[in-house]
Amino acid sequence: MGLSSLYKRIDEVSVVSFDIFDTLLLRPYIKPEDLFLHIEKIYGRSGFAEQRMNAENLFYRKNGREKEANIDDIYGMLPEFRDMKQHEMDFELQVLELNPEMKPFYDYAIRNGKTVIICSDMYLPFSFVEKLLEQKQISGYTKLYLSNALNLRKDKGDMFDYVVQDLNVKPSMMLHIGDNKKSDYSQAVKHGLQAYLYSKVSEAFFAVDRKFAEFYRQQKFCVGASVASALAAQKNSSGDYWVDFGYKYAGPVVYAYVRWIDENARKNGVDNLLFVARDGFLMKKVFDSFNQDIKSHYVYAPRVLNYTSNLDYDTSNKEQARIFCEYFGRDPGQETPQSFVEKNKKEFEKLALAEKERTGYAAYIKKLTAGSGCIAVTDSISGRFSGQRLIEKEAGAKTVGFYFLTLGTEKEPGVQYVDYMPEELRDAFIKKSKCNLVELIFSAPENPVITMCYGEPVRKTVVSEAELVRQQVYKKIESGVLSFVQDVRRRFGGHDIYFSALCSLTLLDLYVSRPEKPDIRAMAVVKKSPHADNSEYIPLFAADLPFWKVRKTKDLLWPTFLQRLGLVIFKPLSIKIRGMKKIEITLFPYLKRRKF
Questions:
Q1: Calpha distance 504→450 (Å, rounded)
Q2: 489 pLDDT exceeds 90?
Q3: What pLDDT is stored for residue 232 in this prediction?
Q4: With a threshold of 0.85, does the pTM exceed it?
Q5: Distance CA 34, CA 171 (A)
């Protein structure tokens, strides 16, 4: 029976009873006890969560079931944690939020002259729950019935008998609405009431979002996973794929990474934090939303400046040498770009010197770092620390780098840096193109910077359709991320949600590994540029290509069913030579699942 039928059910009775928790009010956790784990982490009180979860049962074992436990009874079982009682009550007031799905039914009952009551099996004090309801805009009810005040319970059914007598109403003329199958439905029906079993928001969400259901299953002992899953479940869809992607996937990842940057900046005594464009665009916005102590700047440090001003590029990399030659308008002809640069090194050194003067980069970066004690540079994924090395060289100051992940670090042993993704997760993260997804998440809705000119960025004025699409998509992702950050701040008052690096890895991995039709459709328009000069764009994960174009579809991470079928038909065999003595022959290499 759908939720819309509840209006008719309300019309048929004279008394409407509502449960509180997970019905009228929602906690930002999948399990209610995750609140205790969160408090333990915030206040650094090891062991609190486990003992707090056991305290109520301990009270009943010692005192029997004649008296319903209240919060004072519970904390009487926790002598070493008595000071946490007020923290728990304050946190309940902070994090609980009115359920926007249930409030219209509550208002409808009030508006139509029904006697509205509230019933809950709850240990919190009567006066506290009254204050809580008032603060969350729940008013107009006739009576509040709490188990610890009445010494009666819904899950035993005796509370329903008491309420019927107290209101002098026929049981059949009372409708109780709640989320617990035993307490709110079975016992209500057993005692003659009408009942409506409200599906928990999180359960309904997991039933339709299989990736998030699996994410929570894998990370259910992480409070950050509980929070991110609950917020995603409680957030109404915007109707736009990319806004929702920004909230559900990019939001927790960006928030957690920026909190980690803040933590490490404080640990290292950083007083000037430089967010490198374009990846630092959203990072700085999120950082500034909860940090007012550390000075921060959004800075330009394009890789191409290292090539053109400092002759600092990977000489073994053909593409970097090509970009270098094209920038200065030099045609290598039949030679490789690397050998051409090497042969004409003195000429290029003169060009680089003039370029350094023209860019004015040294003055630009020195102005931003003047008077700083400890400077940090932060980016997303870096291969050769080009931005950090450029800033250090031109500012004449050492820095510490904060990165989501670094690649090829053995090439730059002198650079001081810290990675968000721990070493033990590194290999798992690099697989399956998660790096490409991170680079989409940490982007910016602005044209690429070609170079600098007297301290000002020079951007591409004519960009490809792929770049324009990427920018449009990113504006929506940014909207979703900032909405997530705003909700976290509102619900938790500035406290961290402890979304770990492992949670980030798991969430991103599930998104990449388990695409569904809406994901493939949305991602088909998104492309990435593999080069520093953004001279070429290739599909990120998917592309809207005919199934017979197997040369292009074979490189897609997310081929459609028809594209995969085309690969099976036109590419039924794969032959790879491994050294002198080994040949690998694979039958139907592009089948999604193979059994022989």
A1: 32
A2: yes
A3: 98
A4: yes
A5: 36
User: What whole-number distance in Å separates Cα of residue 541 and Cα of residue 543?
Assistant: 7
Look at residue 205 and give its three-state secondary structure: helix
Reference 372, options 512, 462, 235, 269; nearest CA is: 269
Tell me the sheet residues that pair with 132. none
Q: How far is CA 162 from the centre of its chain?
A: 46
Hey, is 268 helix, strand or coil? coil
The CB density around residue 6, as the number of other CB atoms within 10 Å, is: 20
Tell me if 257 sits within 8 A of 538, measured CB to CB.
Answer: no
Count the neighbouring beta carbons within 10 Å of the beta carbon of residue 352.
Answer: 19
What whole-number distance in Å separates Cα of residue 352 and Cα of residue 20? 69
Q: Which pLDDT belongs to residue 424?
A: 93
Report which listed range, 255-264, 317-326, 406-415, 542-551, is most confident. 255-264
Residues 507 and 253 sit within 8 Å (Cβ to Cβ): yes
| Average pLDDT value for residue range 319-324 | 78
Cβ count within 10 A of residue 468:
11
Give yes or no for residue 595 having a pLDDT over 80: no
CB 544 within 8 A of CB 560: no
Region 491-518: mean pLDDT is: 95
Residue 168 corresponds to which tokens in the numbers above? 């002098």
Left if phi > 0, otherwise alpha if psi is -120 to 50, otherwise beta: which for 360?
left
The 3-state DSSP class for residue 277 equals coil
Supply the pLDDT for residue 331.
Answer: 87
State the virtual CA torsion across 355, 356, 359, 364 in degrees, nearest 10. 180
pLDDT for the residue numbered 323: 78
pLDDT of residue 412: 63
In angstroms, the first-to-last Cα distance of the chain is: 46
Residues in the chain: 596
CA distance 195 to 177: 6
Identify the pLDDT of residue 329.
81
| Average confidence (pLDDT) over 390-417 | 85
Tell me whether strands 399-406 and 375-382 are parallel, antiparallel or unpaired: parallel
What's the half-sphere exposure (Cβ side, CA atoms, 13 Å) at 110?
15
Residue tagged 């019933």 (tokens): 119
Residues whose CB falls within 8 Å of the CB of residue 186, separated by 6 or more in sequence, listed in order: none
DSSP state of 237: P
Which DSSP letter does residue 540 get?
A: S
Q: Give me the pLDDT at residue 404, please.
A: 96
Q: Which helix (H) or strand (E) is 178 found in, with range?
A: strand 174-178
